[in-house]
Amino acid sequence: MNVIKYLNNNISFYNMLMLFWGLFWLLNGLDKFFNGDFIPNPESYATKAVIINLDGKETYSIQPVEPYGWFGVNRDAKMVGYFKRLNLPEWMALSALYTMGSIETVLGLSLLLVLMFGKIHSDWNRLNMKMIIAIFSLFSIFDILFGDRMELWEHGTFLILATIHYIYFLFAIPGETFNSIRDSLYKKAKEL
After folding, report:
1. pLDDT tens digits for 54-74?
2. Domain layout of the chain by residue ranges
3. Who contacts 139 (Cβ-Cβ below 8 Å, separation ≥6)?
4. What are the respective helix, strand and coil percentages of the chain, to the nearest 5?
């Protein structure tokens, strides 16, 4: 048997997408709880710039600080910094961070359970996808309030991606719900 044909027939695109979203949200949620540290990287390959005196001798080198740890970014410090911009207290920042981390972790587990049980057209999966879109919308509002344009770009891109996948899950994969939606839309179009 042709290996490529076998793999192509047995690897489900839907399963790959569900695995992506499940792991995305699970790891993104856990990221809120496990902070990495920023440590200096003194290696010569990492040198960003050098300061040279009038004799042409290197006086100082500017070295980067890089994330170290499983998740890299220190979310606690980043979130507290965001909230300070609006004169909001640290406890509020950390409460928001850990609440969101909990929601994201549960969403990731829920998506992985949908994958395990194969509930592609279930209300459960549609709710998961709506939660993804709602979370990215909230993140985008948050990014606007705190003036983080790079995060806004990232979250907006994921919002579009999630919307496309939601449409794919609803309409591109045959199933009982798909068939009834398709048939009702076809009937309405014929009536016009």
Report:
1. 887 777 878 777 767 666 677
2. 11-36+71-175, 38-69
3. 151, 155
4. 70, 10, 20
